From TrEMBL:
Residues 174-200 are annotated as: Disordered. SUPFAM superfamilies: Cryptochrome/photolyase FAD-binding domain (SSF48173). This is Cryptochrome/photolyase family protein. Residues 191-200 have a biased composition (Basic and acidic residues). It comes from the Bacteria. PANTHER family: SLR1343 PROTEIN (PTHR38657:SF1).
Length: 508
């Protein structure tokens, strides 16, 4: 009897050992399901790109001689949930064993573990052969510590995997070049050309819509701009290394109305669906530095995101789930303003960042963290709602990476496990790092009055409200000293302004 092997939509790695040699005794199954389209409201491009990439993967497996059973979203026999579909497939093929790769989402991990336990045929979970670390490696490294410093983890990873290392010392004499990576972008050098392929998937989009799947954002179905297989992802990686990586470090934290991706790689979709392995991406960046093609600060800054942050947040996720999804240390409970779904707000930074997210299913890190997340935290939005928004809107949003970034790093809802202080700012930072404030309806300098930038009053009010929790944080000494120096009536005016802003978030 054949073995049934399940391939999830974010497990599109053709180099997995499962595919080393075709076998008649193995049937690979890929299933498009409502269970996956409906657990949160997704951006149209995300659903389309994942299904299109799954179809491409199935096609390539078949060409390589593998047996594949593909269940499309509109297939009449599709039961739309994982257990029901697997039950039917096991019976249809008379399968004698069931195997799956380790899922990255808690939701699927629990569902499949439960399913496997109930099966009467042998079931086995294998490694997905993608990450540097195991699920529990970060937790083991941080054992007994109250705070999980990313930098500590990152250095351990550099040593363990011998990346940018001379003996046991960091090349260039420094672990971290973060301080060199904080330049605004003056408009030159020009933003590199968009390195992504384009595909017409109008027909598939019609199928998805006809099946009744709900979504939001621009589908760009006739011109879908994401890599859909490994070859395309590799071509995009090549283009990034030559065109954008040299300046990645410089402008990593920049924001601009004149460029929506700046010098970022746009590789998160290819990485998170496992078309690319983090090791090869890191190796390419390191090799480019060794060959003298990119500065060390650029290579290190980029590598830190992948070998550091990406593996680290995964460790946080597995250590803290399932409670992490409910974390709300600051007790925030406001619903998202309606303009999160339209981009229609007078705050230019948010109109640009939300607007481009709806258009491209993408925002770069600083837009996610210091514009949208910053506002959400200052305004006191419900972190679980914020989490569902992030999980839906971005092309690369899979819960294992999205949740710690949103709930931990961006909303401080875990009380500071991941971030040493809340990532918030007033208008001054936004103005320093980009051009969003130019031509904005609001006045970046004013703290009160109807034209004052909402970030200002909300910022001071946030620290005022959170004094008990944050007042002793040594990284916030400056902020609290400034607050202490404020006259009583200045502070009162800020409080009143902030309270009024929070009452009318929808109309800001
Ligand atoms: P680049 O800037 O080119 O970085 C290269 C790679 O490094 C990325 O592709 C990504 O794999 C990795 N990386 C960078 N920063 C992080 C980080 N903080 N955590 C994990 N990996 C990182 N990333 C996701 O992949 N999925 C998400 O759902 C997601 N949600 C986020 C939500 C919030 C609130 C914040 C603040 C960040 C989130 N990130 C998420 C992290 C980061 O913003 C994206 O990985 C990045 O913007 C993807 O674009 P890029 O490929 O052009 O990245």
């Amino acid at each position: 009897a054949p073995t049934l092997r399940l391939i999830l939509g974010d497990q599109l790695n053709p180099l997995h050992s499962w595919f080393a040699a075709p076998s008649d005794d193995v049937i690979h199954v890929l299933i498009e399901m409502r269970q996956e389209t409906d657990y949160v409201l997704h951006h149209a491009q995300k659903i389309l790109a994942i299904f299109a990439a799954m179809r491409a993967f199935a096609g390539q497996l078949r060409e390589a001689g593998h047996r594949v059973h593909y269940v499309a979203i509109d297939n009449p026999s599709n039961r739309q949930t994982l257990p029901a579909n697997l039950d039917a497939l096991i019976v249809a093929h008379g399968a004698g064993a069931f195997e799956y790769q380790q899922p990255d989402e808690w939701r699927l991990d629990a569902q499949l573990a439960d399913y496997a336990r109930g099966l009467s045929i042998p079931a086995r979970m294998v490694d997905s052969e993608h990450f540097y670390t195991t699920r529990s490696e970060a937790a083991e490294l941080f054992e007994g510590r109250k705070q999980w410093l990313m930098e500590h983890f990152y250095r351990a990873m550099r040593r363990r995997h011998q990346v940018l290392l001379e003996g046991d010392k960091p090349v260039g004499g420094q672990w971290n070049f973060d301080h060199d990576n904080r330049k605004p972008w003056p408009g030159t050098p020009a933003e590199p050309r968009d390195p992504r392929p384009r595909h017409d998937h109008s027909a598939l989009w019609q199928t998805i819509e006809a099946a009744g799947v709900a979504s939001f954002g621009n589908p760009q179905a006739g011109n879908l701009p994401w890599p859909l297989d490994r070859a395309e992802a590799l071509a995009q990686l090549d283009a990034f290394i030559t065109d954008a990586l040299p300046r990645f470090g410089d402008f990593q934290d920049a924001m601009s109305t004149r460029g929506w991706r700046l010098f970022h790689s746009l590789l998160s979709f290819a990485l998170n669906t496992k078309m690319l392995s983090p090791r090869e991406v890191v190796a390419r960046a390191e090799a480019a530095w060794q060959a003298g093609q990119v500065p060390l600060a650029a290579a290190e800054g980029f590598i830190r995101q992948i070998l550091g942050w990406r593996e680290y947040v995964r460790g946080v996720y597995w250590a803290r789930m399932p409670a992490y999804a409910e974390a709300n240390a600051l007790g925030h409970d406001r619903p998202l303003p309606a303009w999160f779904w339209t981009g229609k707000t007078k705050m230019r930074c948010l109109a640009e960042s939300v607007g481009q997210s709806l258009e491209h299913a993408y925002a770069h890190h600083i837009q996610r963290l210091m514009v949208i997340g910053n506002f959400a935290l200052l305004a006191g939005l419900d972190p679980a709602e914020v989490h569902r928004w992030y999980l839906g809107i971005y092309i690369d949003a899979f819960e294992w990476v999205e949740l710690p970034n949103t709930v931990g790093m961006s909303q401080f809802a875990d009380g500071g496990l991941l971030a040493t202080k809340p990532y918030v700012s007033s208008a001054a930072y936004l103005d320093r790092m980009g051009d969003y404030c130019k031509g904005c309806h609001y006045d970046k300098k004013a703290r009160s009055g109807s034209h004052a930038c909402p970030f200002n009053a909300l910022y001071w009010d946030f620290f005022d409200r959170q004094r008990e929790r944050l007042g002793n944080n040594h990284r916030l000494g400056m902020v609290y000293r400034q607050l202490d120096k404020m006259e009583g009536n200045t502070l009162d005016a800020l409080r009143t302004q902030a309270a009024s802003l929070r009452e009318r978030l929808d109309s800001l």
